TrEMBL record, chain B:
One of its GO terms (cellular component) is plasma membrane. PANTHER family: ABC TRANSPORTER ATP-BINDING PROTEIN (PTHR30482:SF17), HIGH-AFFINITY BRANCHED-CHAIN AMINO ACID TRANSPORT SYSTEM PERMEASE (PTHR30482). It is found in: Cell membrane. Signal peptide: none annotated. It is a multi-pass membrane protein. The keyword Transmembrane applies. It comes from the Bacteria. The chain crosses the membrane at residues 30-48, 53-74, 80-101, 108-129, 155-173, 207-230, 242-268, 280-302. The keyword Membrane applies. Pfam families: BPD_transp_2 (PF02653). It comes from Falsigemmobacter faecalis. This is Branched-chain amino acid ABC transporter permease. One of its GO terms (molecular function) is branched-chain amino acid transmembrane transporter activity. CDD domains: TM_PBP1_LivM_like.
């Protein structure tokens, strides 16, 4: 395997009974690239994320992360291997302050040390520093003491992505990071994702074509649980299959 | 965090309780019982309030602790300190097993599993009557003798219970403040996310069970020494229910809430049972009221009053800052 590939899947498949949610998925995600997954609803995008993060165990195929076969790893074990994700539907610790949400996310990288009932949470300086860093980067420092459940939608989405960043993953998976965001917040998130691509490998699902076409290095188009096509934005935009299958007028629209 | 929920204040309140009980209660037995149940309810709170696990299995660990005391003190004359350690370790071991198996399922199925284990251990105790005394339980469990003769006076045993209570309460407070306790709260808040950010959730839940079971078994051993009997009733599901009711009445937002819950239950039961033999009916009514109107329990009420009278300014400031 080439060393500049961070994440590889071979023949990855997920079936629920007779229903095939994902089949024959071969992916090679280049290191420090921004790779987006697009496709109509029900194309299997989120299912693939679940399979990659271990939320769902794949029925077929193989997943390699930085050369390690993680196909059989539990979700929490994969975090230690360097995968982190954000969710399409915001999933935070709603009663806990923003800073505690991020401290936990940073501690999640060394979870067994957290099992000690005598060790104080604040004693983990690196985790505290990471939490502060992410808050600064996500513009959440002003609300660090507020329970996550009380934040505005845009702030919650930023925290959602911040939770994935706090694990300092080599590959970061984002499931519709801009879902439900206002226009200004979207610009901010676009800048952030591009920025993340410099020192992380970013894999994200997105419906906003403006973002996808602008910041992706590679786009994978999915349909009915399979890969339809893959390539750089320009090639995908011109592909007639893609145009008829999914994008249609959307692609010629907002290109900001 | 509210001032009254800070760990040092919570410990101060526990210390105050220990000092106040002898002033208000005439019976040293009742006072000791209050502290023992306070300890056990706090251990239950570790699961219910901090981890979000409603366990009907607490009676198992309580009963085991009292049997360990009964068997090893009466038949083998093992020294008290060693018996207490044995009870604690066995409690932790069995709780690890029961917890580890029960957390395989979530929600209602988890609750049903703990209930099933509670029945299982009850019938085990009932069946192995050579060991447990079956229906009769184990009689003549002695109180500890720390050099000055056995503690025949209930109040001298109270001191022994009080010291145990304070030490274990402090340890549990420490656990809730640690990375471990903070992770439990995260698991309670959003288990899926806790797993997604890398925590092996099952290990944390099992560890919470182990600690809870250890403390509960220690309390069971104390109870057997207090009343001199290790009855079958201690391992019955009714005991589990009682522990849960105390915890819920007290509230699950802090450990001291459980002390309030246990004290309210025991003292209310003592007063009511002298007035009316069907006193449990009134207690049921009290539980209905808590479930309907006081979901954060008595401690929730105290928190509310505290904010109203003492931290009014602070809550106002906070509101203004938000505008």
């Amino acid at each position: 395997m080439s060393p500049d590939i961070a994440l590889t899947t071979r023949g990855l498949g997920v079936t629920y009974g007779k229903f095939v949610a994902l089949a024959d998925m071969d992916l090679d995600i280049r290191r420090n690239s921004v790779h987006s997954i697009i496709g109509p609803n029900g194309a299997g995008k989120t299912t693939m994320f679940h399979a990659l993060t271990g939320r769902v165990m794949p029925s077929h195929g193989q997943i390699l992360l930085n050369g390690t076969d993680i196909t059989k790893f539990r979700d929490d074990e994969r975090v230690r291997q360097g995968i982190a994700r954000s969710f399409q539907v915001t999933s935070l610790f709603p009663t806990l302050p923003v800073s505690e949400n991020l401290r936990l996310a940073a501690q999640g990288k060394t979870p067994w040390a957290a099992l000690a009932p005598w060790r104080m949470a604040e004693a983990n300086r690196p985790a505290m520093a990471t939490a502060a860093e992410v808050m600064e980067r996500m513009n959440l420092t002003a609300v660090h003491n507020r329970p996550a459940g009380e934040l505005s939608h845009g702030q919650q989405r930023r925290l959602e992505v911040g939770m994935a960043m706090a694990a300092k993953p080599s590959v970061i998976l984002m499931d519709e990071p801009t879902s439900g965001m206002g226009v200004e917040d979207i610009e901010e998130m676009k800048r952030l994702i591009r920025d993340l691509g410099r020192d992380h490998t970013v894999l994200f699902i997105e419906h906003n074509m403006g973002i996808v076409m602008n910041i992706s290095d590679t786009i994978t188009v999915m349909r009915l649980g399979r890969k339809l096509t893959e390539g750089p934005p320009a090639a995908v935009r011109e592909n007639p299959d893609v145009q008829s299958a999914y994008l249609g007028s959307m692609i010629t629209g907002d290109m900001a | 965090m509210l001032l009254i929920n800070r760990p040092l204040v919570q410990f101060g309140l526990a210390l105050l309780t220990v000092l106040a009980l002898p002033l208000f209660l005439r019976s040293g037995i009742l006072a000791s019982e209050v502290l023992i149940y306070a300890l056990i309810a706090a251990a239950c709170n570790l699961l219910l309030g901090y981890t979000g696990l409603l366990s009907f299995g607490q009676g198992i660990f309580f009963g085991l602790g009292s049997y360990v005391a009964g068997i090893f003190l009466t038949r083998y004359g093992v020294p008290v300190w060693m018996v207490l350690i044995m009870a604690t370790l066995l409690g932790a071991a069995v709780a690890t097993l029961v917890g580890w198996l029960s957390i395989r399922r979530q929600g209602v199925y988890f609750v049903m599993l703990t209930l099933a284990f509670s029945q299982l251990f009850y019938f085990l105790a009932y069946t192995f009557s050579d060991l447990t005394g079956g229906d009769n339980g184990l009689m003549d469990v002695p109180r500890p003798d720390l050099g000055a003769g056995p503690m025949n006076n209930a109040w001298s045993f109270y001191i022994f219970v009080a010291v145990s209570f304070l030490v274990l309460f402090a340890l549990m407070l420490q656990a809730t403040q640690s990375t471990f306790g903070r992770t439990l709260i995260a698991v309670r808040d959003n288990e899926e996310r806790a797993a997604a950010i890398g925590f092996p959730v099952k290990a944390f839940k099992t560890a919470a069970f182990a600690i809870s079971g250890a403390v509960t078994a220690y309390g069971g051993a104390l109870k057997a020494m207090l009343i001199g009997v290790a009855p079958l009733a201690n391992i019955e599901h009714h005991t589990s229910e009682m522990i849960l009711i105390m915890t819920i009445i007290g509230g699950s937002t802090s450990l001291f809430a459980s002390v309030i819950g246990a004290a309210a239950y025991m003292i209310l039961a003592d007063v009511l049972s002298q007035i009316w033999p069907r006193w449990l009916l009134l207690l049921g009514l009290a539980l209905v009221c808590v479930a309907l109107f006081l979901q954060k329990g008595l401690w929730g009420l105290i928190e509310k009053l505290w904010v109203m009278f003492f931290q009014k300014d602070q809550s106002l400031e906070k509101k203004e800052a938000e505008h």
